[in-house]
Amino acid sequence: MQDEIITLALAKGRLAEQTFDLLEHMGIDCSQPRNPGRQLVLWDEKNRIRFILVKPSDVPTYVDHGVADLGVVGKDTLMEAGRPLYEVLDLTFGKCRLCVAGYAGGGNASVTRATFRVCTKYPNIARSYWGAQGRTIEIIELHGSVELGPVIGLSDVILDIVESGSTLRANGLTVLEEVCDVSARLVCNRVSMKTKRDRIRSLIDGLDEQVRRMNQAMMEA
What we know:
The protein has 221 residues and is α/β, with parallel strands linked by helices. The chain has helices spanning 14-25, 31-34, 59-64, 75-81, 123-131, 148-151, 166-170, 190-195, 197-220; strands spanning 6-11, 41-44, 49-54, 70-74, 86-90, 96-102, 116-120, 137-141, 157-162, 174-182, 184-188. The strands form two sheets. A six-stranded mixed β-sheet has the order 2-3-1-4-11-5. It has a five-stranded mixed β-sheet with strand order 8-7-9-6-10, covered by helices on one side. The radius of gyration is 20 Å and the shape is elongated. The relative contact order is 0.19.
């Protein structure tokens, strides 16, 4: 029904701004969430859409618990969270790669240990990735300057997102393995998909059309 409220969870920053661009082309008013001040809950009253602005890592949590019907989140964050959500659309922006990186040819010669160490902010992905290879690793969880791990001998490699690779090169590191491609994804609460199906389907279809147009325009530019 058109009077149903749809709640969309977004993280402040580039992914949110690019999502607003798509939504505005669909006729949705994003003036409040674009200029939130200290407010965390914003509205497009006409279209009955509520926006909540949260930390990137919290988007899957809000959607999973049903306080948000939809959310926009990076594929890396979605994989790490491991929540039972519907991943309904690849928005195709925010592109990068999730990679294993370290020193080419085996690593820092000063590192001599029996345990293979990985510095990362993605401990769950790391366990799954190396576990699938039958390898036992020691995970050192960091949330900033992960590249320091191999450089100072804290770890053998890192697992992190890579865009241009310039930070890796500046520190003598290189991509050793590519785990997966990463981009922004639209996710949906499983119950909401059933109870608010028509409205949610309309939003998904509208965003899908805008993504196609955006990509076509980029190809023609």
